[in-house]
User: What shape does this take?
Amino acid sequence: MKPQRPVGIVGWGAYVPRYRIKEEDLAQAWGRDYKRYASGLMVTEKSVPGLDEDTLTIAYEAAQNAIARAGIDPSELGAVYVGTESKPYAVKPTSTILAEAIGASGATTGADFEFACKAGTEAIQAVTGLVGSGMIKYGLAVGADTSQGAPGDPLEYTASAGGAAFVLGPAEESVAEIVASYSYVTDTPDFWRRAHMKYPSHARAFTGEPAYFHHIMSAAKALMEEMGTTPQDYDFVVFHQPNGKFPKRVGKKLGFTKEQIEPGLITPIIGNTYSGSSLVGLSAVLDVAEPGAKILVVSFGSGAGSDAFHIEVRDRIVEARDRAPRLEVYLRRKVYVDYPYYARSMRMYVMPSDVGAY
Amino acid sequence: MWAFNPSIPPIKREMPSRYRLEGFECHDCGFRSLPPRQVCPRCGSRNVSRVRLPRRGRVLQHAVVHSAPRGYEFYTPYVLALIELEDGTRIFSQLTDVDPEEVTQGMEVEAVLRKVRVGGHGGPVAYGLKFRPVLER
Assistant: This one.
């Protein structure tokens, strides 16, 4: 897919909370042997939201960083879209709070997107369409989550907190042009959360081949075919990263090398930020990519689908890069917490004030 | 059964200052403060306008709250601080992303948006700017 007029990323920004919990501590909390039970996920620790953080506060800081790099007035944003599966309100848009807080409220469109882990890239597709058709000049697309994983479930080893935001605009103003994209969806019930349920359910091994691998490979191959490219044409590749293992395996299957994958592989040290996952990886790549670099990004969202993007880095990236903190700044500042703090942060405990039992 | 929910009108009314640090400036005596006002409390002038205050400052004084008022129990212990912003404006705010024992006088801080109060399982979420130690870039 290509828009009528070229569209690009004008500014990018990421955010990861400062708290971390080690995988060994998660395993120990449920009496499990980490090496036997969880080390195969190839994630050593994961980020944990602070007590006063949620998807909105994560989206806010990522958006502030993206706007700073874009160097635009937030009132020029014609779209504020937040992709997430951990909305602070079930009914009330996260996007309106974000728009108000960043100074973009008023004459703008706003919506929350939900598509499991690819809601953020789905928001990018929507903004690309609006900018590409000339309806708006700039739009903001965010992927952020305080990911849910049931206590004791394998998901608990990876479900983490973080996100990334992108200001999209005309390609001539961009730091990286989104040259083309390809989206691929099917009805695949690999992972879901029914209404009123606190934690998601998943189909264990079924989340692999028929879900993650099939959709990512279908979208990646189709986009490369449309563009007439091969894996060797890309400097970087970023896949959705539910753990440390899948992105490496899918990359190898498609013919990408370790050197192309690793700069954007962040999950092993912060866990899976769900809607933020591939976008945090893209932020990490934009933090280091030089003008002329080609990037392939392929997200995956359960349920299921993938968005693939062919991105080419432009000269403006050099001046934009240091207008906001790089991802590594957030990765460096970390404080380890224990399981009781984690349980508190994830609101596993019911407080008297939660139910009015004063 | 009832939950202690934050009141909605003040949440809406205070958004400009709580979300974006919008205060006021007196054009006669130069006094700046939060929240926006129509009359300068220092000189009585009505010659005032809204201004967005700087997002960085330093801690002048602080106190650690262990026994919190209703609605804030979840966050204890937390730190309240008197902060002098870069333009000299003094404001009162919570600190976040910092252990209470790490807070020092003169500590440089910057504004971040965080949850301030949450109305139980079904009430509104009130967000507002808090301050954290400046990120080491």
